[in-house]
Amino acid sequence: MELRLDGVSVEVAGRALVRELRLDVGAGEVVGLIGPNGSGKSTTLRCVYRALRPTAGAVLLNGADLAAMTLRDSARVIAALTQESHGELDFTVEEVVALGRTPHLPHSRALSREERELCRRAMARVDVGHLAGRGVLTLSGGERQRVLIARALVQQPRVLVLDEPTNHLDVRHQVELVTLLRSCGLTVLVALHDLNLAAATCDRLGLLSGGRLVTTGRPADVLTPELVRRVFGVDATVVRHPRTGATQLLYDLTTPAGTAADGHDDAGPTGDAIAKGIRP
Amino acid sequence: MTPDVNSVPGSAMPPVVADAEPDDRGSRRGGRGRLVSALVLSAAALLVTVMAGVALGPTVIPLDQVARYVGAAVTGGTINADEVPAYSIIWQVRVPRVLLAVLVGAGLSVVGVAVQAMVRNALADPFVLGISSGASVGASAVVVFGLFAGLGIYAVSAAALLGALGASVLVYLAARGRAGLTPLRLVLTGIALAYGFQAVTSLVVFLSPNYQAAATVLFWLLGSLGAATWGSLPPAAAGVLCCVVVLLRHARALDVLSMGDETAASLGVDAMATRRWMFVLTSVVTGLLVAVSGAVGFVGLVMPHLVRMLVGSGHRRVLAVAPLAGGCFMVWADIASRTFFSPQELPLGVVTALVGVPVFIALLRRHGYLFGGR
């Protein structure tokens, strides 16, 4: 299923968070959104899983405007892993995963045997089967993240939207997750902080800065030293993975000349004042 | 090989949990067996409680006699002339009172569950949205100024209901923002307006020409089932029944709602719309209950937590067990209120808090129960 962001703009309280964003995600394609903090990645994704309504433009699903569909209908097609913190109630892992069936079930009908089996296998797939009876509030951040991924899988979506899915995950589970994204056959739109993981995972990347799409293209074309420097303010050397050939960045940790002075000037006086216990 | 998540079971997913235990393990927290046993237990407890509630009181009436009187009243049988006083105590006073206790306990517990999910806050209770303080404005106006005198004994109830609904409308209008009804706004507006309504109640009492009226208002605020009659049952019963049925039907939406608005959107639940109808439903039912029982605190806050400790957090289980457990609790609280200092009646709110708080804290400490994180 094909996803298209057609000139999406989001304005909240007079501030433009996303402007005129145009991005296509082809059927079965894995597209990554990268960009510094506050560049509009999460806001964009919110429009796709419908926690936000674009102020202008539209999100199209196979050409049909999402805004014209009921939430329930779109949730049958689009599943999301949000950044939202868990609620306050201590549901079991099993219960949380089963909620993925919500858009498919009328009111409060219980899960069928097939659906329970589906839940069980989704849990096994992200390695949380052994936690089925545990309360979600007792889990570690990474375990909880995997539970939410299982819930998204149980939704049986055609499109998967993930906001920083590798947060809290250890290396093994990060690798397993991106492998899953690549192998699941779904249309995937994912926001990632880790540029190397993004480059290794995604077919294409969209680079955001200040709510605008700077460029889009294959990882090798987007992650150039110039763009990385311009958008992220970091010096990086681009290399190819010796075995897979994937584009990877090596960060140059000696601070770039221009930014060093700025950063120091900003932090300096405050730091001194605190160290000496002086009140302003 | 690429296992397809998108396919229905039966396809090539890794058989990792082939040796997993069956789903209905009794030991699992919130397991199916546990729900059934909790349901059976609390239903049985409620039955015993209701019988005890009818038999016990300043005059204890043996159970066989109780059964005979109730049987006579229901089937239209006959009793001896010398049994008439005992019969009237049972049929005219105790049975309606116990039934009202069940309704109020059940209703407040269920509404408590719903409100906690609605505003996503474990500290919320049916009164957090200013409903009880609104009702107390109405009730005190009747007691002090004699409004609605034409309604006779129902004047206080009617005024309390009006006050409760008026308060809900005010809270709704004040909390509504461009982003809709957000949980935090709802709670903050409710709490702020509650202070306002309390001030108005105090003002009314302050202006009252006599002390008797002030004492009556205070007593009403602490809750009592002393005014229970058969006539006071139907509105409360209809409200509570409707509330339980509707909420049970939307139990999954409540689960989703309690996880956050973004999660709700991604699972196809419109959080704003759900909150809107839940607000209306819980306000009306709370108003109906407050009108007949005053503002009985504590039950709506604590019963939801007690029930979650027993059956887990899933709302289908919680909503099924909460009315039974809440009804039980309230009947015993009422028995205590009318027997301990007989012939004086202890305000119901005093009993629910004095008995409930220590029990709740003990349970909280024993189970390592979690709400709001570790």
From TrEMBL, chain A:
Gene3D superfamilies: P-loop containing nucleotide triphosphate hydrolases. The keyword Oxidoreductase does not apply. It comes from the Bacteria. Residues 259-280 are annotated as: Disordered. It holds the Pfam family ABC_tran. Residues 3-235 form the ABC transporter domain. PROSITE patterns: ABC_TRANSPORTER_1, ABC_TRANSPORTER_2. Keywords: ATP-binding, Nucleotide-binding, Transport. GO terms for molecular function: ATP binding; ATP hydrolysis activity. PANTHER family: ABC TRANSPORTER ATP-BINDING PROTEIN, HEMIN IMPORT ATP-BINDING PROTEIN HMUV. This is ABC transporter ATP-binding protein. It comes from Sphaerisporangium melleum. The lineage of its organism: Bacteria, Bacillati, Actinomycetota, Actinomycetes, Streptosporangiales.
From TrEMBL, chain B:
The chain crosses the membrane at residues 35-56, 98-115, 127-148, 154-174, 186-207, 237-257, 277-306, 346-364. It is a multi-pass membrane protein. It is found in: Cell membrane. GO terms for cellular component: plasma membrane. The keyword Transmembrane helix applies. Residues 1-30 are annotated as: Disordered. It holds the Pfam family FecCD. Keywords: Cell membrane, Membrane, Transmembrane, Transmembrane helix, Transport. It comes from the Bacteria. InterPro entries: ABC_BtuC-like, ABC_transptr_permease_BtuC. One of its GO terms (molecular function) is transmembrane transporter activity. Its main location: membrane. GO terms for biological process: siderophore-iron import into cell. Belongs to the binding-protein-dependent transport system permease family. FecCD subfamily. PANTHER family: FERRIC ENTEROBACTIN TRANSPORT SYSTEM PERMEASE PROTEIN, PERMEASE OF ABC TRANSPORTER-RELATED. This is Sugar ABC transporter substrate-binding protein. It comes from Sphaerisporangium melleum.
